[in-house]
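Exam revision sheet. Question 4 asks you to relate a sequence to its structure. Input first:
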Amino acid sequence: MPKSRKNRSRVSRIAEADGISFSAAKLRLLKKLRCTLRFEKLAWAEGAKLVAGVDEVGRGSLFGPVVAAAVILDPAYRIRGLRDSKLLVAERREELAVRIREHSIAWAVAAVDSARIDQINIYQASRLAMVEAVHQLACDADYLLVDAVKLDCELPQNAIIHGDALSASIAAASIVAKVERDRMMAAWDPVFPLYGLASNKGYSTPQHLAALREHGPSPLHRLSFAPVWSAPVPQEVLSFMQEGEPTDIGDDVIAV
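Answer key, structure tokens:
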């Protein structure tokens, strides 16, 4: 059985045994994992010098881009407190993101917009964003630690299940990507105030789902996602979309 399926089965067993939701069971499991430099040290021992952690955020969101980051940590500078961004409060993520950007050898962020997500599906869009983040690094990585998936690039890489909870480099990428995507959602909130984007970040909260049913999706909602395409009100179309003019959010893949 593939590792991803084994881990999903383990989370499902926890959820069933404790009578909690799958997401709550997953968070409980993640909290028990230790985020260390074990995988980085293995790569360094094999001769790698610039090990980049890579992760994405926003994969399950109904709105906006999926955002990825790549981070090459400095082995000589320890950043304490790195862990999966989902396990950190917003203020702590912000603090760590500043330290990561200041003290890493290199970092980069890239995003794939909702239109491209609808064209190629969210899985492929997530992988595309991660590859672009790697390409945007100021110095070339020679080894990748990736959260759960294998990327379409020639660099040696290790796809680690729950990587953002186990690898410090992947956790750092998770934090940087999460902070950047949250910033985007806060910027879009006053543009599309009906959906509560500043608080729900585009995810399927009751408020968000109710707004979709009542008002229909915005131009930046992901039409390939069931709660969006099944909304009874048609998607809003802005004038620039009809006229084919460029938007201020750039191309399908955006270097942030």
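Marking note for examiners. Residues 168-188 form the longest helix (21 residues).
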